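Open question from group meeting: does this chain pack into something compact, or does most of it stay loose? Before anyone orders reagents, we agreed to write out a predicted structure and look at it together. Recording both the input and the output here so the notebook holds the full record.
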Amino acid sequence: MKEVEFSTQVSKNDLYHFLMRHFYTSFSGIFGVILSLGALIAFFLELGKRDTFQLLVLLVMASLFTVIQPLQMRMKAAQQIKRNEVFKQPLHYLVDKKGITVSQNGESNTIEWKEIRKVVETKKAFFVYMTVMNANVIPKEQIGKNVEEFKLLMKENLEKSVCKLH
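Structure tokens returned:
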């Protein structure tokens, strides 16, 4: 029987990567970037034609989703890592035919394959979504040599529409 075991410790950079990817691939994230870019273009087109206050408003709008939002997400990731007990100890994963069993401090929970809504692979991590908003962040470097076996188990046990792997 195929199975993969590994442990992970999610860092603030791992969580920041998840928050950025999650937000900027959503409709509101894409719309926000378009809005910010539009405001930046308007700023340069109106430079010298508008009063300082109007130009300042355009500059603030331009920085909302390109500078301010990423900075807020970095702070949010750092706060969550500090406050949330789940991030203070490593999580142990056992991935097999039943699903994904996550254990920590003597407690464990099995996420059956049918409970997984979506799995996304990025260059740095896998995000295993159980709800639209919540996912297990699994950094690839911490899976080590088992990355391909992990991907294979995902592909074998999940519908193609759920599994967004490279």
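Observations to bring back to the group:
The mean pLDDT is 94.
Residues 123 and 140 are 8 Å apart (CA to CA).
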